[in-house]
Amino acid sequence: MRLIFAGSPAAAVPSLQALLAGPHEVVAVVTREDAPLGRKRVLTATPVADAAEAAGVPVIKANRLAAVQDELLALAADLGVVVAYGGLIREPILSAPRHGWINLHFSLLPRWRGAAPVQHALIAGDTETGAAVFRLVPELDAGPVFALERTPIGRVQTAGHLLEALSVSGARLLAGVVDDIAAGTAVASPQEGEVTLAPKLDLDDARLDWTEPAARIDARRRGVTPEPGATTTLDGERFKVLDATIAHGAPRLDPGVVMLRGRAVHVGTADDPIELITVQPAGKRAMPAADWWRGRAHDAPTVLR
Asked: DSSP labels for 169-222?
């Protein structure tokens, strides 16, 4: 079949590579436009754009597919494939390919429809997640499902770690569905179960609340790592918690109070303390929590808020 692939972040690259290695022809890759990244705000192509160009596949850069509608329709594709493109696909583009469009989504649909399913699964304390390949319909992530794969969520996995693993296993799932559609054997079933939503995270979602139990704080930290990154406040300035763990059974501290115990830096919560491992104070580089503590003035209590 002639395929259009639409995707942008690194999590979409394994799927593109799996399709390029298969029997079908990827006639074009659609990805978001170059964006300024880093402190110097250098215009940078998406990981999918880099992978497509390295493979010699034509790349179409657009933040809205409507802007390149005529170009897409002229491709006369048999199937459109989406993995985290970052924009909606509407008519007439939605119905243009002979077999429509399919989407690889990193959740157990209909749980966690939306832009950040892996992150919300972790924040909510889910014990499992997975990947689903479904047919695109006008309603957000609501189409019938061709294939679904479950995976347990590890107790120390961050969103970054989990998404990386799902991107690889999901690529295999997606490639299988594409082959089944080509063979005429693919069957899609309506989604069943409670619908939950997973909107894009913002800085408010990344803020840690030390009055909560340690398990909930740790779940949020893992869910927002690496992006947008877990934050709290120290002396009125943003303070990033890059890595941490629950200090099970350690003596309790008042919420937010920081104390050095042996070589471990603990923060109080509603129950067990959180042990800080790697932190980034405002305006400084990332560093081991013990190094940060040794550089602090200790003539007053240290409290994270």
From this structure: HHHHHHHHHHHHHHHT----B---S---B-PPP-TTTTB--TTS-HHHHHHHHH
**Looking at the domain that runs over 2-183, which CATH code has it been given?**
3.40.50.170
Pair 254, 302: CB distance under 8 Å: no
How far apart, in whole angstroms, are the C-alpha atoms of residue 72 and residue 159?
Answer: 33
Q: How confident is the model over 40-61, as a mean pLDDT?
A: 95
The more confidently predicted of residues 213 and 283 is 213
The fold of 214-303 is Methionyl-tRNA Fmet Formyltransferase; Chain A, domain 2 (3.10.25)
Using pLDDT thresholds of 50, 70 and 90, give the confidence band for residue 216: very high
Report the run of H or E that residue 161 belongs to, with start and end. helix 159-183
8 Å CB contact between 230 and 164:
no
pTM for the full predicted model: 0.94
CATH 3.10.25.10 in the chain is located at 214-303
Q: Is 33 helix (H, G, I), strand (E, B) or coil?
A: coil
Closest CA to 222 of 108, 120, 115: 120
pLDDT band at 299 (very low <50, low <70, confident <90, very high): low
